[in-house]
Write a structure and sequence with these properties.
Blueprint: H1 2-70, H2 79-86, H3 89-96, H4 98-113, H5 123-134, H6 137-143, H7 147-168, H8 171-176, H9 180-202
Helix pairs in contact: 1-2, 1-9, 2-5, 2-7, 3-5, 4-5, 7-9
Keywords: Membrane, Transmembrane, Transmembrane helix
Subcellular location: Membrane
Family: Belongs to the Cold-regulated 413 protein family.
Amino acid sequence: MGRVDYLAMRTHQVEMEDLISSDIDELRVAAKRLIAHATKLGGLGLGTSFLKWLASFAAIYLLILDRTNWRTNMLTSLLVPYIFFSLPSSIFQFLRGEAGKWVAFVAVILRLFFNRHFPDWLEIPGSLILLPVTAPNLLAHNMRDSWIGVLISLFIGCYLLQEHIRATGGFRNSFTQSHGISNTFGLVLLLVYPIWALLLHFL
């Protein structure tokens, strides 16, 4: 009797292991199909999203660099509208929501009532917070997500790159001077996203 019970339990355990392994195999096949279909449908879109994140981080990096040790005469405040137009939607909606409003409110209060204690290096980051919060819907939704916003980003990137090359004394110097490579590389990254987005839009 005990032998029969043991065999029945052993058979049941083997059947359960077979069911679980077949379920895992089916999940593996479904995951492979999902990845294949996602790359077919959204491969270009995923590339655009990645380049948008990269361009935003490059612009923020250049902004920080300018506030710390780059210190050029270039109009680097143009990076603020560039970030406005290229910022990924998730971060943009977060800044446009309640959290962004509170940060903008605190920045305005500090600027108004504690003017002497408000550091100069906070001017541009403060405007970077204020811009998404105060922008009208025409700019925040229609132009930002259209080819017009991409074209503005491309124009800003081209202008800053040529100003940087002019300030360093030529294209070769922009890659050889101190901080030249990182600055030039960051400015080139500003161009990659809008060029890619425009090519996808018009082709």
